[in-house]
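Summarise what follows for lecture notes:
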Amino acid sequence: MAKYGKKTQNKVKKVMKEYKKGKLKIGKSNKKVTNRKQTVAIGLSEARKEGAKVPKRK
């Protein structure tokens, strides 16, 4: 059973590919992402903005 919706899973997957290629940057500071947890957080954040099914932040 999936924890997130299909749209969210696809978004996180897309962001993860960017991270692996070394092209993913952090918001306004434009620094390179160095941690996988940061990558997942960015993916979930972007999915929330698009209106995907994502649990609320704790």
Notes: The radius of gyration is 11 Å. The beta strands are 25-26, 31-32.
